[in-house]
Amino acid sequence: MTELELKYGCNPNQKPARILMKDGSDLPVTVLNGKPGYINFLDALNSWQLVKELKEATGLPSAASFKHVSPAGAAVGLPLSDTDRKMYFVEQAGELSPIACAYIRARGADRLCSYGDWAALSDVCDADAANYLKGEVSDGVIAPGYTEEALAILRTKKKGNYNVVQIDPAYVPTPMEHKDVFGVTFEQGRNSCKIDESLLTNIVTQNRVLPERAKIDMVVALITLKYTQSNSVCYVKDGQAIGVGAGQQSRIHCTRLAGSKADTWWLRRHPAVLALPFAEGIRRPDRDNAIDNYLLGEIDPAAFAETPVLLTEEERGEWLSHLTGATLGSDAFFPFGDNVERAHRSGVAYIVQPGGSIRDDHVIETADKYNMIMCFTGMRLFHH
Known about the structure:
The protein has helices at residues 38-58, 82-87, 98-108, 127-135, 148-154, 212-226, 251-267, 271-274, 284-295, 313-320, 338-345, 360-369; strands at 3-6, 17-20, 29-33, 62-67, 70-76, 117-121, 138-143, 163-167, 176-181, 184-189, 232-237, 240-246, 326-330, 348-353, 373-376. By secondary structure, it is an alpha/beta fold.
């Protein structure tokens, strides 16, 4: 199939809409269920590139949770701890496959932003991943394949209308890409930069001891940023994005936004949050909203079987002080040291960024103040 007609474009008034291959070749995607729309395919194709590259760079199954052409979260398929299982509500799920763990962690980065997401899996979708997807509010999924059991499970979701897309993992796009804006065609070379540990050799801080786990986190951050609308900043811990700041006009606002998300992710691990007495039968989205409001100091009485006690500022601060060893990636250079100061407040010990600011010396000095390790890649990762 060389083209696929869509219901409409970004908005219902934007018709006609389709995806197509201008060279007459077959589309690299096959719709196995549902009817994905214009934005669905934008999310699907961007998210697939992210997880494909992340798997190639780390050797680990990878997943992403996309909303409006930016990742709400991305992660590699490391096993879930007992705390992970509690905060992601999979305590009774038994042993889970690596690809299921990857998506559970990716969605767990920012569950509010992942509401109604598009999921991407680097590996064949199995029953574990499908069962988890079935219980979440999600628009669709893209993967290189599906087991028969997984496909049967997904075809029961959303009254049989859940979007399931299979992509040819061998597909390679043309080296040039085009985009029309206001009747004008833009052309550029595809961003085919390879992101791996070879980018991490230029350590510019006094502290130069870069652990292997931090290298993985830096790669996760950079590949996530490559497919995040700019300006963008990404906090990562243990192979999982824990805060993504996308599409901000200033670098510090990216860092603050992503940092606040990282703080929320860490606070969700607090024993008081894990023990919240939810009302019986509460829906997952309502539960996630109730947790978010609780962390903002608000309580929705309808969400709880009994009224919980709010965390004090002292308790919040004490808990956040234990968030350490996080990594921060930026798609462009830090113009000021204030970004490093804000990153430090959210437990960042490792920073990876292109470098190239006229104030690099001040940024490095700020990192040295906190004994951080910072790498300059020399590679900007703007994405629009």
